[in-house]
Amino acid sequence: MGFTTIDYVIVLAYLIGVAAFGVLIGGKQKSAADYFVGGRKIPWLAVSFAVVATETSAITFISIPGLAYLTNLNFLQIAIGYIIGRFAIAFLFLPSYYRGELVTAYELLKTRFGDETRNYASIVFLVTRTLATGVRLFTTAIPLAIIFKGYQIFSGYSSTEVYALAIVVITIFTFVYTYTGGIKAVIWTDVVQMFVYIGGAAIALYIMLSRLPDGWNTVLAMASAQSKFQFIHWGFSGGIAHFFTDKYTFVASVLGGAFLSMASHGTDQLIVQRLLATDSLKSSQKAVIASGFFVALQFLFFLVIGVVLYAFYKAAPFTDGDQIFPKFIVEQLPSGVSGIIVAGLFASAMGSLSGSINSLASSTLVDLYRPYFGKNNSDEKDLRLSKLFSVVWTVILVATAFIFIHSNESVIEIALSIASVTYGGLLGTFLLGVLFKRPRQKDAIAGFTAGLLVLIVVFFFTNIAWTWYTLIGSLATIVVGLASSVIGAPSKLKV
Q1: Neighbour tally for 399: CB within 10 Å
Q2: Could you give the C-alpha distances from 58 to 201, 278, 295, 323, in angstroms and in order?
Q3: Which end of the chain has a smaller Cβ tally under 10 Å, C or N?
């Protein structure tokens, strides 16, 4: 048991192989549009798988089994909201994106409100995506830290140094194909990596069950006794205060999941960019709706792994749920298998990281640079700038990941909390533009600002659960935006 030389060889071979695959399949690009939306020729099923791989990251692989180990299956309620939210995206947002043949989500806000609103939304996206990706990238270092602790050569290194080394290594291999192949390389490597990390986790689950005295029956006996299979949590028994502070009540989970999904998949350039790479509106709609069902199944799969871990470790107490699955992978799996599983973990991390680099670069170029400094740029110059921005954002993401090294919170909840604080204002602004004709640019900015401020207050000064954040921020944005439009004089709007 333990991580051996053959495991290291497998992991290294995988990292080199996926980087080479991405470089080869990405091909050459002639313009920034090729680099960012792949010529709009990518099949919808590939895009759907890429969406799943992108939103998964190492956080799902590590943190969701830990949640099930420490609690139950309540987290799965959020997946119901995810599916509802994606139907709303398919028929509310995507038609507007495809009418304008847009490259970024925030170009829609420019068309509807103006440049200032587009810039505001783009900057919020850049900040949010940087922080959220930093959390995800840090997560990848957790199993490597456990691996390195067992080797004398690393005895003189601190945990911080080990985490930093892991972060840098995974980033270098991901950057190679992201830089050279653009969104086409990102999406197709995401498809491969989704099957790698799912396959790796399935192998771990099989081995876990095979080592239990009575297999699945042992899991059923232990888990049922502790209500580990509890899925629905209504949350009405603790009073109104408890209802809004409990993260996983049914209402909070479904509403929170729906609004978070609408924001993350309908207004976040990380996902929207993939949806814009299909050949038609219909293909894009199929991709986003299918991804909701795939993610729900994936959540269930990783939660079940957590329940099986609970039986495997005989309900042993763990203070940090994020350490449980990596501990099993490194300490319990046979030589060679550990390498495959860790390669799967890296696959999930690389899918998210590559997408973040490409989407951050696209928003920087299209939303912030080109309208002011590059209106007359040639396709070749825009492509060079796209790759330069990819380099800059890669460095920033690595630096951001270092910030989270000493965090003791569940990384999935850190990531979702960060996203939810800003997603409320972002989603509210899009809804304000799509659902209402009266609001103008000043109204959108006023509403967006109000949504951000309200959520900052909620985040720092209340105990309201993060699952309510996006809904609260969206409502605040819409209410203030509409109020501002009533106070101001009406004007002609762009349609």
Answers
A1: 12
A2: 12, 26, 14, 12
A3: C
Q: Which of 137, 129, 133 is nearest to 163 (CA)?
A: 137
**Model confidence over 331-356: pLDDT tens digits?**
888 888 878 877 877 776 777 788 88
CA–CA distance, 262 with 249 (Å, rounded to integer): 19
pLDDT at 372 > cutoff 80: yes
- Per the listing, tokens 């800003």 go with 422
Percent of the chain with pLDDT over 70: 89
Residue 458 to residue 44: CA distance in whole angstroms: 38
pLDDT of residue 286 exceeding 70, the answer is yes
Q: What is residue 381's three-state secondary structure?
A: helix
CA–CA separation, 68 vs 325, rounded Å?
11
Tell me how far apart the alpha carbons of residues 407 and 31 are, in angstroms, rounded to a whole number. 41
How far is 405 from 161, CA to CA, in rounded Å? 10
User: Is residue 348 a contact partner of residue 53, using CB atoms and an 8 Å limit?
Assistant: yes
What is the C-alpha to C-alpha distance for residues 469 and 427, in angstroms, rounded to an integer? 11
- Give the type of residue at 59: I
Give helix then strand counts, H and E, for the chain: 21, 0
Q: Which residue has the higher pLDDT, 136 or 380?
A: 380
**Whole-model pTM?**
0.82
Token pair for residue 150? 């067992």
Identify which has the larger pLDDT, 239 or 400. Answer: 400
**pLDDT value of position 493:** 46
Q: Which domains occur in the chain, in start order?
A: 5-409 (1.20.1730.10)
Which DSSP string do the residues of 194-254 spell out, in sequence order?
HHHHHHHHHHHHHHHHHTSTTTHHHHHHHHHHTTTT-------TTHHHHHHH-TT-HHHHH
Residue indicated by tokens 């209340």 = 462
